[in-house]
Amino acid sequence: MRMTDDLGEDVPLTGVPERIVSMVPSLTEAVAVSAPGTLVGITDYCTHPELDLPRIGGSKYPKVDRIFDLKPDLVLANAEESRPDDVERLRANGIPVWVMAAAATVPAALASLRRLLTQGLELDEPDWLVRAEDLWRETPPVRATAIVPVWRKPWVVLGRDTFGGDVLRRLGVALTYADHEDRYPRPSLDELRAQFETGAAELLVLPDEPYLFTDEDGPEAFPGVPYVLVSGRFLTWYGPSLVEAHEATAAALSARLPALP
């Protein structure tokens, strides 16, 4: 059966996929929960759930020859993480690849997952997906404006049209760099500190992935700035974790957010 992925590219499936390789940790979780037993290969960074499966290397630099050896009938990729050259090499060797778009919002990510799971894998709509849509439907008033680093040396922060930014916005936190021309701006440390000094930023949100920020990173780089540590998985993964993420991330933020009037 012929389908198209999020980018409009053909995914020439010959039947319901039974051997799936995932190059995206969050898609690994979604498939493992929704279609157990179909995954035959995952990345080194696929940590949830714990799976005893062959590893294919990193998300950005997978070992493509190892994927060939696994003989998948479908490979899952992501437009933001997966290199086009790797995707094209797989397709050139007759392996269907489904590339998920880099979703800018939670609803967009869930809609994409619904299409993959119900059309691509011919599954019934998962209960977790319906629950996640209900939890993340609303966008409450802004209670704080935050800077959210995802890397340091150099500093990289969340900017416009990012999934993580939308997660926070749906919990009452806006991004200082939400209108920046880049999705992942690279401001200097001096510029970041100045945002707090001028009041353009009120809160520092530090996830534990992709860079492992800790209690030392906030006070050391931003002395005196209010900060909160959050799960990077809950901030950036789209899939079953979104159900738990809503309550857990809201709880982490609550101590630093002013009460609603």
UniProtKB/TrEMBL annotation:
Query: What Pfam families does the entry give?
Result: Peripla_BP_2
InterPro entries (UniProt xref): ABC_Transporter_SBP, ABC_transptr_periplasmic_BD, Vit_B12_bind_prot
Enumerate the UniProt keywords alphabetically. Answer: Signal
- Record bears the keyword Signal: yes
Domain spans labelled Fe/B12 periplasmic-binding: 35-193
Q: Does the keyword Heme apply?
A: no
Record's Gene3D superfamilies?
A: Nitrogenase molybdenum iron protein domain (3.40.50.1980)
Coiled-coil positions are: none
Q: Which family does it belong to?
A: Belongs to the bacterial solute-binding protein 8 family.
PANTHER family hit by this protein: PERIPLASMIC BINDING PROTEIN (PTHR30535:SF35), VITAMIN B12-BINDING PROTEIN (PTHR30535)
Entry-linked NCBIfam families: TroA_like (NF038402)
**Protein name, UniProt field:** Cobalamin-binding protein
Annotated organism of origin? Amycolatopsis albispora
